[in-house]
Specification:
With about 110 residues, this protein is mainly alpha-helical. It contains five helices and two strands. The two termini are about 25 Å apart.
Amino acid sequence: MSTEIIPTSVGETLLYTEVMKKAEQFEQFFVEAIEARVESSSLSHSEFGRRVFESDSGPRLWRAAREQGRKRGLSVGEAYLMAEALGIEFPALIWEIVQEAKHKGILT
């Protein structure tokens, strides 16, 4: 991975690897937050996976996204479909998860 220096919105610089680490941490937190919402809903993880990934391999894809040290990331479109499957408006879901991440110190 490159160690390119990039500017931030406040005039600081961060190494590219630090930025990517922060993004990966947030994505992992996002998946965990969705996982908790699925578990508190009436959906099974398999049904949730089928609704989001719209295929018979949906449960496998959702499991791959949840695995620790996973290699499968999520797209914005998939995050939108997750909100839809949970019956939550996408902006509201993102706002809730960002607030949780800030509260836990994942985002500043």
